[in-house]
Amino acid sequence: MSVALCTYQGERWLPDFLDGIRAQTRPPDELVVSDDGSTDATRALVEAFAGDAPFPVRRSTTPRRLGSTFNFAEAFGRCAGDLIAPADQDDVWAPAKLERLVEEMTRRDLDVAFSDGGVIDDEGRALPTSLWAGVGFDAGEQRAFARDPLGLLLRRSVVTGAAMMFRAAHLPRLLPFPEALNGEASLMLQDRWIAIVLAAVGRVGTVPDPLIDFRRHAGQQTGLRDPLTGAEVAHQLRRTTQSSAAGLLTRADQLDAVLERVGSDGHDGATERIAAAVAHLRRRAALPGPRPARVPAVLGEWLGGRYRRYSGGLRSAVADLARPADRPGAG
After folding, report:
1. 87: which strand partners?
2. Contact 192, 160 (CB under 8 A)
3. CA torsion angle for 144, 146, 147, 153 (degrees, to 10)?
4. pTM
């Protein structure tokens, strides 16, 4: 089993992560570190850790800046284990993280599993929320996910990469990452890509244990939702109505890439559902400029249930109707 750690300018957070992986009750068989050109003490910290780590530490540096998502592709491609646990440099792992994930992957014959976690601030202080609460993955959504993982993942991501483990046997399907993950206004990172591809062909499971402390700070690439106060709902609606069609088209391109990788191996109906999501997103991106002219198309998507199945439901439909005429597309 391999841990794939991507680093970049991580000297502030890395010692806490390395302490956590050293304390694992089920140590990894290897730690694979891909550094994306750090100029601080990150690589020195990893070098020092490798000197007395209780498992091999394989280190490499990217020849040019790749960004987090494509740096993970580099790390995954260097992993030798049958299971891979992605790792973020700024989180802290519970001692039983790897043991519990391996246990659940084995017992339930899963292709990918992901856990809940706590949330900490930049100083390591616990915040009054959880990882799943922060992404809106409540009890109702957990039950829905258990019945139909692909259905929820077609709408949005609920999987945090640092809380994930997946089978390395799927790497030929997952790699290389499609260029669409670098698309304009992209919201799909490596964790959603892995989860949605494997949900279409394999078995995805949740582990409710809080197995990581997710660090929330200003410099991170992704974060958690703010509480949905009235002001926050209004802010989200304004942001959605003012975004361009690029985001929708990027999402459609990404799902097209999922279709290509799934091929004929998907669960019954999986490719048809993904294709329907792609068509819905492209229709949203192509809505006419004048607001009254959008009504028939939006109403058709709404009555067909596609806003609920493939977008943000009523919020997305309202956004499509409300966006300014001189701003094509919606989020």
Report:
1. 5
2. no
3. 70
4. 0.90
